[in-house]
Amino acid sequence: MTVEALFVALGVCVVAAPAILLLAIGGAFLASRPLSENAMARWTASCVACSLLASVAILTLMLGTGSRYVPVELGDWARIPEEHFHFHLKFVFDRLSVPFLILTLILCGTTSAFAHRYLHRDPGYGRFFLAFAVFLFGMVVATLAGAIETLFLGWELVGLSSALLVAFFHERTSPVLNGQRIWSIYRISDAAFLLAAVVIHHATGTGDFTGMMGTGPWPEGRAAVTSGQALGAGLLLLVAAAGKSGLIPFYGWLPRAMEGPTPSSAVFYGALSVHLGTYLLLRVSPILELSPVLGIATVALGLATAAFASITGRVQADVKGALAFASLTQVGIITAEIGLGLRYIPLIHIIGHACLRTLQLLRAPSLLYDYHALEDAIGGPLDDADDAPGRWLTERRRRNLYRLGFHRGELDDALDRFVVAPFVWIFQRFDRLERRWTDWLAGAASRESDRRAASAPIGEEA
Amino acid sequence: MAEFRFPWLSLSVLICIVGAVWDALARTPDVARRRSLGASGLALGCTLAAWLDFVLLGAVEAHDPWSLTAGLLGSPLLALDPLSAPKLPLVALVYFLTNLATLRAKAREFSFARSLAAEAILLATFACKTPWAVAALLAIGTIPPFLELSKAGKPKRVYVVHAGLFVGLLALGAALLETAGDASNPPVAAIMALALAMLVRSGVAPFHCWMTDLFEHATFGTALLFVAPMPGVYGAMRLVLPFAPSWILQAVSMASLATAVYTAGMALVQREARRFFCYLFLSHASLVLVGLETASPIGVAGALCLWLSAALSLTGFGLTMRCVESRMGRVSLSDFSGLYRHVPMLAALFLITGLASVGFPGTVGFIGLEMLVDGAVQSSPVVGAIVVIVAALNGLAVIHAYFRIFTGRPHASSIELHIRPAERASVLVLTALILGGGLYPQPGVESRYHAAVALSRSRRSHARSPVDPAHGAAAGSRLPSGRVAIDLIRARS
Prior knowledge:
The complex is a heterodimer of chains A (462) and B (493).
Chain A: H1 3-30, H2 37-65, E1 69-80, E2 85-94, H3 97-118, H4 125-144, H5 148-166, H6 173-204, H7 209-213, H8 227-245, H9 253-256, H10 262-271, H11 273-283, H12 285-290, H13 292-313, H14 319-339, H15 344-378, H16 395-406, H17 411-442
Antiparallel strand pairs in A: 1-2
Helix pairs in contact in A: 1-2, 1-4, 2-3, 2-4, 3-4, 3-10, 3-15, 4-5, 5-6, 6-8, 8-11, 10-14, 10-15, 11-14, 13-14, 13-16, 14-15
Chain B: E1 2-3, H1 8-24, H2 29-57, E2 62-63, H3 68-73, E3 79-80, H4 87-100, H5 112-126, H6 131-140, H7 143-152, H8 157-179, H9 188-202, H10 209-217, H11 220-227, H12 231-240, H13 246-269, H14 273-292, H15 297-328, H16 344-357, H17 365-379, H18 381-406, H19 421-439, H20 442-461, H21 471-474, H22 482-492
Parallel strand pairs in B: 1-2
Antiparallel strand pairs in B: 2-3
Helix pairs in contact in B: 1-2, 1-5, 2-4, 2-5, 4-5, 4-15, 5-6, 6-8, 6-12, 8-9, 8-10, 9-12, 10-11, 10-14, 11-15, 13-14, 13-18, 14-15, 14-18, 15-16, 15-17, 15-19, 15-20, 16-18, 16-19, 17-18, 20-22
């Protein structure tokens, strides 16, 4: 077997294992024969291990052969040659994707092992692992994507699984509303991504990253677009990344996402999902390099997010909320690093941060217990943390910053007030107009559905 | 024109007609249900055979042998071409699965005989290319829902006003088209009347209220079957697209685009599931029309893909919603109904079919939507952006409805709510098609692209001015490439 054939076999193995996991759990669910808890855990562990071993083998082979770029072509998913339309299924192993892939698989493996015990006998155990399989497959596809359309495919799967897992405890109103909010932000992000993909496709004639970024393995490629095209597509990609990574103005979903079970919070919002936006920016970094304006916008967005999240994180009353904003601070800094033209440092930053945050989030449920144990051991309360950065601020400024942090910048409320509310108001007016029109045409009350009594407004709607 | 090996088209229509009569004579709803399942199953078999035969013949167009109408009219009335070939089995499948998923408890409200009659009319419509016959069949197709509304004693004025407008415009357009001497140069008034008729039938705003009204008053099954195959879109393709000047197409496109946005927004503020479904459907039907008018082969091919995928996925979505409704009556979206614990599988199918309708990756609508966006961006970047926004809004609406129906405190019920085998079978078949078509989209994409090119050729053959150098040479000889066809259209406009 040649080295190339070995690369292809291993590459297929990396992608196929999560796909098989999804088929196994999803197929069993649709056939009304759900797997037992142990079977699901075994399937998950085996598939993650298989994918991880194959990716480590690829890394070893790459180091051994000195390859920096290994494409695995699976052909066109759909194509119309006459129109130069093709949906290319191509996966790429390079210096960006391989570390991120190994990180993904290690953290997913750890979290699934944790979840197996954490969610034992929970009625939603199967639902969690099904959404987890969707997430794992989406992450692997997005990480290895060699074409922007393939990346979009993985991106959407990650978004759906995230929203469903935030709403995991779906018998309560609040998690469901939060899941819905997250889905809304993700849809904005997806729309921006899809538009960027189409713009790039039209500018370069291909969705393939090799074609888009010119020759040379990551991070040395040069984008095959003009500066203006780079600015247009890059801004759309920045919006997409901001939505996915919770940057300003979309940060509101991140603390809401902590409503999900701890394992999903760890893997989604502490470790992987929250970094997917920055991963996208790293993948299309040659485009960022073409436009100084885009670079400045990326740095500004990153720094603003980091500063804001740092202030807000300090006044959170719950541990998961504080960790969410701590994550966001780091993600903002990573974004600024990317905007400054750094490539390896943000990648290392992502890996280190993801590992630390997963550990913190998985430890969060038992933290209070540990604190009590510690205080019992030392015989008194622990000292409060020293608020060194705040000492040089006046009392008034500190109060204002506290208020800003406490209300989370009120940007979430502003989105509700200035975007959602006018939208709903306008369409409710249209609905009333339609009712009047059909009532007039019918000569009587025309809506049978009005007889279905609506219950009181719920949750945040109230 | 090639001939089928067997008169599949006539047979499928005939089976439905005979089945409708036989069904009407049934003494109990249970017998009627069994008979209708047999008849619609046979019709589905015939349409599948017709499609297979058409593919094996490799012809551009094929008709039945021993056609009665060929002797009377000089040409066979029923024929298949690349555009209609997959639509016929789709229509038959939609009817069969809807009949299958109709529970015994609902069999008294939902008339199987009427459903078979409507299927016969619709199959004939989709197998017909002759303008006057298409117009006539589309007009006749408005009768079954009217009969249901009348029989059930429901308000029908909104429906009658719109149906009357539709039939009047159709009659006017068809009459002007027939009286025009030169078939290649139809009067603009005729095209305008036909275009307006198709806007009414497709529910383009402000002519969409009949559809919400139908969903309010008719049974869910009847309303679903009347709209899901999108006969208005078919009418637009047969009666408007080949003849219409560019400005009419642009006007239709703009109206459809505005409707797509408007109905996507309306779907988000609905507080009742049927109305929500209706607006979601309207948004998709409008997107299909937008794609058809992009006048680029990839946009048209995307619209044709979306047409099939939306019909499939929205039928599945509608059927799951109908299953929910049959368990708890009209479904309110103002509250969380908490049905997940009772029907987890129905929840999963609802999610899959709903996401498929908005072109989620891995489902049948994904590639179609990508192609549509691609074609729309070629036509105008703003249109492309709006199409993407509409898709995003529809995605929001689907998840919103999912959460409202299936999450929340578990629904208290004293009766068994589990999904029945017949319901499960029908929705699972659709889900299999949705996922299968999503994972292996190439045959569908290829076939729809050929249909789009054939449409372009048909449009070109009706060109008024002979400015195209290739006009005479290419017509009827071989399929031109899409790019050539579109260049010709653009050159003319």
